[in-house]
Each structure stands twice: as structure tokens, then as C-alpha cells.
Amino acid sequence: MSRSLVIVESPAKAKTIEKILGRRYKVAASMGHVRDLPKSQFGVDPERGFEPRYITIRGKGPILNQLRAEAQKVDKVLLATDPDREGEAISWHLAQALGLDPDDDVRVVFQEITKDAVKEAIKKPRGINHNLVNAQQARRILDRVVGYRLSPLLWRKIRPGLSAGRVQSVAVRLIVDREIEIENFEPQEYWSLTAHFATGGGDLFSARYHGDQQGKREINNKEEMDALLESLEGARFQVASVTRKERKRNPAPPFTTSTLQQEASRKLGFSVRRTMRVAQQLYEGLDIPGVGSVGLITYMRTDSTRVSQQAAAEAAAFIKERYGSQYVGGRRRSRQNNRVQDAHEAIRPTSVTRLPDDIKGALTRDQYRLYRLIWERFTASQMAPAVLDTVTVDIAALGPEARSDMNAIVEAGVRAIFRATGSVIKFPGFMQVYIEGTDDAENNQETGDKPLPPLREGEELLLQDMEPQQHFTQPPPRYTEASLVKALEEHGIGRPSTYAPTIETIQDRGYVVQEQKRFKPTELGRLVTKMLKEHFPSIIDIEFTAQMESELDAIGEAGRDWREVLQGFYEPFTEALAKADKAIQQVDLEPEETDEVCSRCGRNMVIKYGRYGPFLACPGYPECKNTQPLLEKIGVNCPKCGRDLVVRRTKRGRVFYGCSGYPDCDFLSWDKPAGRNCPRCGTYMVEKSSRRRGKHLACANEECGYTENIGETSDTGETGETADTPAATEEVVTRNRS
Question: Which of 25, 299, 511, 609 is catalytic?
Fold first, then answer.
């Protein structure tokens, strides 16, 4: 009986597939890439058509030897790495290392790791797709060219340890440009006027000033507001029109890699890297009681919202049985832009009948939460639209001279129009299962307008109160991980699989930090971005980078010559590099002197910047090498020991608050302590911020739930957000080093 060796990347995937295939197959793991460009050398020869020099990755020698030994024992070797460019390249490297002909039928791909999908794929081996391999090689070499040629320039001109990258530099530019936009933003004043009415039957509702008979009007300042209020004195109010409409809302399409990263950030608080790590586990397979090892979701690196006919049919049958035939959606084709490769289906559960709560006991908390999100999104995408009944009511403020009949409303005497809108869900449709989240929405739930009381045209209303409010336009918000991923995708920068390492790198290099889960550029990030803008405009240009992505895609999709693409980039790049080296002067980052005295030599310590952010160092270096963390006091005492609380940062740049007495005192909080205790339970209060409530205080005790608006001191009894205290195992910086 012939035997085959199947090689995948990970042991978890190997375990799942081996149980499916049975005794005729031995499944082994390569543990990811086995060969790559050398770390200590450029490893690319531009004079010979960008010929790469691949070496065995350190530590992978024993794995390759084991794979070679296993290959000698079988009749056939099948390479079953992930079904994307990266996976195709790993298979190509394995073929080279194991002496296999890449054009033979040695490659199989699994879009999902289920019994039927795996057994069907095993029957259809093919040769390695050289276009996909070349696309990965070109991307890898291009990134090596930029990184290994541009980074040393930054070392010489600014300081050692910096890096530049084709995607990371554009990501930093987006963050820097947004910060400059915020700093230059000039708030514009405007006002709103809300009128509170009562019907003859005693029902209360509100309407906002809309304008007059000529159309919508803005209230720009207090003088205009005062004039409007004066004109409304003595007015009576009458319903001018009631417009009812039925509105349909379609469900969001199933997840792509990018939308999954964004939604997991919004709804679950997951970082991009955490999302991809957990999704990989769900794809590779887990032991489910009564089922065995099975992959729970389809391949999680995809830019397509396409769903197979089989999956759609299974979902329709499930929805009909569980919710009713009226909830089954029709076949919808999602619009996809021309950058979508459409190599794989959307991310979906491998079986919609495998309910999240039924398998909850077999999953970790993160696995369960992400699987449930994917299951709900996919199920909702196959359901019928929601139907909402909406009503818009215009209310006329009439002068005493206006007649009561409706025909006279259009004549003179109308001083202002107020508008009220309301809606009720007539048929929930997909909303029965899932509602898409939005950036900066506190609860990520669509509540809609409140229902209005029954109103009829010509009905007289009683004015209860007028509520004028002053407002100022707000600057655009800083990027969160979710909104940065969205911006990168919209601009065509990088690919979803690169977003996690890109976001990690720009924080590791000290170009950006996270404050309240939003990215803020450091002075170093600003400086590097300014330099690259001036001397390497194409490297950091958003449109140019997007165009380069399209050219790289064309290699894999249409077989474009990868060496030609690289040559077209390399020649102008090397010219710009030579000019910049001559033009850029050495940048001296002057250290800022502080009042902190060096405990060893008595000099005033200065602020320097290391990989993990600013720290204090003695200016007497190298005679005195004393360093210590930069402690930024927040003016609040530690709730545990009474010493000063200070701002700290994790190695990824995320801000938290800790005791200056660490490690003697281990108090830590992600939210800024407010310096006062909860009037209900005595626990310390923290500052919170949301779009709906703005800045407010909340009790750090999760079970208490007490909140209050800034300035309040009474017990409101509201249930607010809870403080998330970092665990003792959280990676924190207690001593910064350059």
C-alpha cells in the first residue's frame, strides 16, 4: 500500500489533517518558512537580475533533515502549505530543499480544513504556481531593497537602530499627516436649537430647528441664535407635514481579512495581530467533542466577499429552519473593487450549523468570541434585509397673523421649521443576528431614532421648552488600529496579511505610540517622515505605493516579469538615495535637560529616546552610564500606597498608569485614575471617554458600575464602562534602554 507525506506549516494543522486522511498519509510540519534572505547581508544581486541568495533559516536545519528523512520513506510528497502567495513560496522553497520537481503534481491547497474539503483537494494535486512564487519573491526583494538601502541612511543622519520600509513608512505618514491636520484645525462655531413639544394628548417629543420655507438654515453664532429666539416669541406651533416611508437596510457582506481585523478591534478589543493569531487557530483545526479535529473557518487571508454556492445553500436551509423562510435572503453579489484578487472565498464558518454556543466548551475565550463574530457576520450576510418604518415630521412656528388652515402654512407667517424623525423596526431581518460595528460608537449598536407619537397634519402642539446649544466643529480623530487598517486598505497600501507586522514595527521603532488606543506620532516619527517626504517622495507617496502594489499583484495574476518591475523601481530609487546622502545634514536630536539629578554623579539628567520611547540618561556618558525611566507624574496619588502615579508605556507603545514605587507597589491601570473615590463603593475612579457621553468618570470596580459626568458629584446610578486593569503578566516597561 503506497504512502504519502503531506507537509504543512504548523503542528496544529498537521494534527487535524492527519486525523482526516488516515494511516496512508504521514503529515509533518515545516514550522513556517524554511529558507529566506540572510539577515546580516543584502542577499540580492541587482546586477544579475536581482538574483536572491536564499539560505536555510537558523534553527530550521534539523527540521529540513527530518523532512528529508520522512520523504525517503514514502512514495509521494505533497506540499499543502497555506493557499496564498506566501504559502506558494514556502512550498517552492520546500521543493528546492527536498529535491522535488516543482512542476510535478506536488502541490495541494485546502481552502478549509474539513473532511470533504481535504479529501477532495488531495485528489487534485498540481504543479507549483510560479507566478505566485515570483510575486512573493518580488515583494520580498523590494522590501529588502528599501529596508537595507534606506535604513542605513537614517542610521548615519539621525541615529542607529532606525528603519524605513515601503509600507511602514506610508503608515507612519498617515499618522503624522493626521496629527498635523488635528494641530492645524480651527474649530468653527455653530448652534443647534431643540424644541420640546407636547401633543394635546400629553405625549412628549423633541424636534430640532431645520430652517425656514426656503430650506435648511445654519445658526452660526450667538447673535443669530438670539435673533431666532426673539423671532419665536409668542409663536404657536403646528404640524406642517408628516412623511412616512419604508426603508430597507441590507446586511454587511461576510468578512474579508481587513474587515475582520477592523470589526474584531471594534467589538472585541483585539489587536490586529491577536485577531490573526486566533483566526489561524480556528482555520487550522481544533478538537470538537463528537466531531474530532476540524477547521472551524475557511482560510482567513482573503480580500473577497464571495461565498460558494454550497455554503450559501447550507446557510439558507439553516436560516429557514431556525428563523423562518421570511428571513432567508436572496443571492446578492457584493461590489468589489478592481484591487480584489478573489483567490479565496470570504471568511466564513466551515459549517453554519456548528453553532458557537454548542462548541463553546472546546474553545478558549478568544477563540469562542472570534468564532462567534465570524459565524454571526456570515449568517447575517445570508439573511433578508431589515425593514424600518420611518416618519419625518415638519413643525411650523407660526406668527399670530397666520391662518389655521393648512393652505395658509405656505403663506407669510411661518417663522421657522422644526423637524423630528423617528423609526421603528417593522421586520428585523438580519438584525435578528448581527449589526455591524462603527468606529467610535460606544456600544456599536444601531438604536435608530426614537418612535414619535401619532401626529397629523394641522395638529396644534404645545411648546414646553427651547434648548439652544453652542457647538464647535471637531478635528478628525487620531487613528485606531481599526481605522488605520481601513485607511491602508482604502488607499491600496500593503495587503491585509502585512498589516499586523506593519503596525507592530512602527511602534517598535518608536515612530508612534498609542494613547487611549489611538496612534500618536513621536518627534522621531515626525522627523523621519519629514526627511522621507523631502528626499524620497515616491517611497512615502500614497498613490505611488498603491501603484506599486498593483504592479506586484500583476506578477501573480498575469505573469508580469518580476525582474522588470524591480528594475523600474530600483534605478530611480538609487539615484534619489545618492542625492539624499549628499543633501541631508546630520540631525542632532538635542537632549532636553530635566530637574532630575543623577544619583551617581549629581548632573542634571536629560531626556533621550530609545526603542521603547523616552528615558532619562546622565549627560556624563560614557563616564557615567546611569539611566532610569522617565516618570511623567499625573498629579494623582497611588490608591494602594499613596505615592505618585506616573505615565508608563508597554513595549508596543500603549499608555498605562502605574505607581512610581514599582516594583515595591504593583498598581497598574489602563485608564487614568481621577484622584477621587467612588461615592458608592469607595474604589478609585478613572477617566473614560466615548463619543456618546464624552469624557466621564467611572468606578474601577467592575461590579459597582457607577459613573458620573465630569463635574457631577451625585450618585447617578448609571451603569458605565468598566476599568480594565492589566494583569501582572502584561509586558510593561520598567526600565527604558537606548
Answer: 299
Q: Is 487 helix (H, G, I), strand (E, B) or coil?
A: helix
Q: What is the DSSP string of 572-629?
A: HHHHHHHHHHHHPPPP--PPEEEEEEPTTT-PEEEEEEETTEEEEE-TTTTT---EEE
Spell out where 43-114 has E strands.
Answer: 44-45, 51-52, 55-56, 76-79
- Tally of domains within the chain: 5
* Tens-digit pLDDT profile for residues 626-653: 988 777 778 888 998 888 898 887 766 6
Q: How far apart are CA 79 and CA 4, in angstroms?
A: 11
Q: How far apart are CA 695 and CA 683, in angstroms?
A: 19
Examine the domain organization and report whether 121 and 167 are in the same domain: no
- Domain at 206, CATH number: 2.70.20.10
Residues 323 and 376 in one domain: yes
Residue 177 forms part of a structural domain: yes
Among 209-218, 290-299, 504-513, 625-634, where is mean pLDDT lowest?
625-634
> Is position 499 annotated as part of the catalytic site?
no
pLDDT of 564 over the 70 cut: yes
Which carries the bigger pLDDT value, residue 631 or residue 319? 319
- Domain, as residue range, for 646: 631-709
Mean pLDDT across the stretch 76-88? 92
The verdict on 373 and 280 lying in the same domain is: yes
